[in-house]
Specification:
Blueprint lengths: L1 H14 L1 H5 L7 E9 L4 H16 L4 E8 L4 H11 L5 E11 L1 H7 L3 E4 L4 E3 L13 H19 L5 H9 L5 E3 L2 E4 L6 E3 H5 L1 E2 L4 E2 L4 E2 L3 H9 L4 E5 L4 H11 L1 H17 L5 H19 L6 H19 L5 H18 L12 H28 L4 H6 L23 E4 L6 E6 L2 E7 L9 E8 L2 E6 L2
Parallel strand pairs: 1-2, 1-12, 2-3, 3-4, 3-5, 4-11, 15-17
Antiparallel strand pairs: 5-8, 6-7, 9-10, 13-14, 13-16, 14-15, 16-17
Length: about 450
């Protein structure tokens, strides 16, 4: 009997090897590699922010910045440091070739810094975008601020704060264990071996966490060979286009609103409606690529647009559906531009909403000015004549008092599609008309059921 129990135990052990090992089984670590290549600019920020948000949602363990940059814009650098701080997992910089200027500041914001054998980091003094030196007074202020930022992100990370400060400020002296590593009057730059040199008791590397020949070797060291899955992101044309689309957001919104306005002033659905949809899609696309929004805002926008269409085509005059739809559309635009992070409580703070609301206000203001210009200048032109019916077939203007109750019950034919508004013809006269419910194609026989303002209400003759 004992042999039976022993045999059963061995079978169970073969089915559940973690029991024999005495340790729980672990799934492979999830790693995302994000390149930071070339000059630091908006596209790098966009792919980093979007990549970090997706990594948080997918519970990624490690983010690796594959760094090879000569530096770039300080404002973008600060934004990249902010978003790096949002990631709850491990962040690592791999200095592929060089991390100069802004690159060294971004590296300082990660948990660990690894180097390729020929990697170089340093020379982070602020300069103008043209490469020229900053005014001495302004330079002092910027350097002081940068050093304070470096201290805040380097706390508890050995010599990192002092080393990065020496890269920023030529007037700082870096001295460790009585040895002057950088005298005043120059900026500090380090090769991979220099960054790995140890100082102090107990000994700590000056800046680096290790040297790896490539990303694969680095990941083997971090998680063990074959014990990780890796996804590599790349900056593409979409990030490059997004930086212009986000900058032009108010203009795109204004043009989109104007296109929708013109579309509602014309019978049927055509060029201006499609143009408005394309312009608004540019707004959502730009902010999605910028990592500011997911797919949800555009779904809310489409829901709002559907409510407006349902009211205009099927329940004209109700107003509740259209008002709800407009609120959803405007809310979705603000949502698309707001920087919300996954697994964080949504905080409706001024910092989050100020830029989206400002863009919306500017876009709405430009749209209103466009509406005024259309109403003031276009009625005299051919475009407006094509948008708003103001003549009968005889060439005489159709006045309101010419549309009388005597037309009720008369039959005619739709000369344009009715969606639900359009034009009909009765006894050789063209009139503006609106279907009470639904839509009708050109050529559909209709009957007049009522009169409203400058148009008649009709129904399709079955």
């Amino acid at each position: 009997m004992n042999r039976v129990w022993v045999g059963l135990f061995l079978v169970l052990c073969s089915l559940f090897p973690s029991v024999t090992a005495g340790e729980p089984r672990h799934s492979p670590a999830k790693v995302v590699v994000i390149p930071v290549r070339g000059e630091i600019s908006q596209p790098q920020l966009y792919i980093l922010r979007r990549g970090l948000k997706e990594a948080i949602e997918q519970k990624v363990d490690t983010i690796v910045l594959d760094m090879d940059t000569p530096g770039g814009a300080l404002d973008v650098t600060f934004e990249m440091l902010k978003v790096l701080d949002k990631f709850p997992g491990k962040t690592v910089t791999y200095v592929h070739s060089e991390a100069i200027s802004a690159g060294s500041l971004i590296s300082a914001g990660t948990d660990e810094i690894y180097f390729a054998p020929d990697g170089v980091i340093g020379a982070a003094a602020p300069v103008l975008s043209s490469g020229q030196e900053i005014d001495a007074t302004m330079r002092t202020k910027i350097v002081s601020y940068l050093k304070a930022r470096v201290r805040s992100i380097s706390e508890g990370k050995g010599y990192r704060g002092d080393v990065i400060s020496a890269m920023i400020d030529s007037d700082s002296e870096l001295k460790i264990d009585g040895q002057v590593l950088k005298p005043k009057g120059e900026l500090l730059s380090l090769t991979a071996p220099e960054a790995m040199k140890t100082y102090g008791t107990p000994a700590h590397p000056l800046l680096g966490a290790g040297i790896a020949a490539n990303i694969d070797q680095l990941l083997d060291r971090l998680h063990g060979a074959g014990n990780y899955s890796v996804v590599t992101l790349e900056v593409s044309w979409s990030e490059k286009i997004a930086q212009y689309l986000t900058a032009l957001t108010p203009v795109l919104m204004a043009l989109g609103m104007m296109a929708f306005f013109i579309e509602f002033k014309t019978p049927g659905f055509g060029f201006f409606g499609i143009t408005g949809m394309v312009l608004m899609s540019f707004v959502f696309f730009g902010h999605y690529i910028a990592g500011l929004s997911g797919h949800e805002p555009i779904l809310f926008f489409l829901l709002g647009a559907c409510l407006v269409i349902v009211e205009v085509f099927f329940f004209p005059g109700v107003f509740v559906l259209a008002l709800t739809g407009i609120i959803l559309m405007l809310t979705s635009l603000v949502w698309a531009m707001a920087d919300f992070w996954p697994r964080e409580p949504i905080s409706i703070s001024s910092d989050v909403l100020v830029r989206p609301l400002l863009n919306l206000l500017i876009g709405s203001g430009l749209a209103v000015l466009g509406f005024i210009a259309l109403l003031k200048f276009l009625p005299k032109g051919n475009l407006w004549n094509g948008m708003v019916l103001n003549r009968a077939v005889t060439g005489e203007p159709v006045e309101r008092n010419q549309i009388s109750s005597s037309l009720i019950g008369q039959t005619g034919t739709a000369v344009t599609a009715l969606f639900p508004s359009g034009q009909i013809e009765i006894s050789g006269r063209r009139l503006e008309a609106r279907l009470a419910v639904g839509h009708a194609d050109a050529g559909t026989p209709v009957v007049v059921t009522g009169q409203s303002g400058f148009s008649v209400t009709v129904e399709v003759i079955s």
